[in-house]
Design goal:
Layout (H helix, E strand, L loop, with lengths): L1 H13 L57 E4 L8 E3 L7 E10 L5 E8 L8 E5 L8 E7 L3 E9 L7 E11 L2 E13 L2
Parallel strand pairs: 2-9
Antiparallel strand pairs: 1-3, 3-7, 4-6, 4-8, 5-7, 8-9
Length: 191
């Protein structure tokens, strides 16, 4: 009986983890410029604790400059978007490119995307977001989740069998911030 109470008393004073009370480090907060967990590394330098969109710039590199990244960012990789050549045989549902919208904030937002023939208001490209298989001529108020990476895919479906140019606009909106990018898509018809 005496042995049991001694073991119980020892377990209560040390704690379940074996650490003395009050020595558990704080978690790293990844965007406050402070070494919260006391390991000598600040924010994104602490790759064991921080990562994801908070610590990644639009080139997929880790942000180790110490400068905060914007809450919203729209970027197009010229290798992934958007000029294209098409013919009669391959224009139906032809994928022509993609771009990315990053929401690094903890707020819900919206995305709007249009691609129109200048001066006509006619949308000639089909747009889909992330893994959604529904193609639309435009996106309006599409939900953008907090801390999310959103890929917008563009495709063409035989609108006109001729060379043309389309003006596109992408806008991401948060309650207190927005980011907008305009770009052109040149379609070259090759019969």
């Amino acid at each position: 009986m005496l042995r049991f109470s001694l073991t119980l008393s020892l377990s209560l004073s040390v704690g379940c983890s074996g650490e003395a009370p009050g020595t558990h480090p704080e978690p790293e907060i990844c965007d406050d410029g402070i070494d919260n967990n006391g390991n000598g590394l600040i924010d994104c330098e602490d790759s064991a604790s921080c990562g994801g969109l908070v610590c990644r710039d639009n080139t997929n590199n880790t942000n180790d400059t110490g400068e905060p990244l914007p809450e919203l960012e729209i970027f197009i990789d010229p290798d992934d978007c958007c000029d294209f050549t098409f013919s009669d045989a391959d224009c139906a549902g032809k994928p022509i490119g993609q771009f990315t919208i990053l929401n690094r904030s903890d707020e819900q937002g919206t995305i709007d995307v249009t691609c129109d023939v200048p001066g006509t208001g006619i949308s000639v490209l089909e747009i889909r977001m992330n893994d959604n298989q529904v193609l639309r001529p435009f996106l309006t108020d599409a939900p953008m989740e907090p801390t999310s990476e959103n890929t917008i895919y563009l495709s063409y479906d035989c609108y006109a069998l001729q060379t043309f140019e389309v003006g596109c606009s992408a806008k991401a909106t948060l309650p207190n911030d927005s980011e907008e990018l305009g770009f052109s898509v040149r379609a070259i018809y090759s019969p």
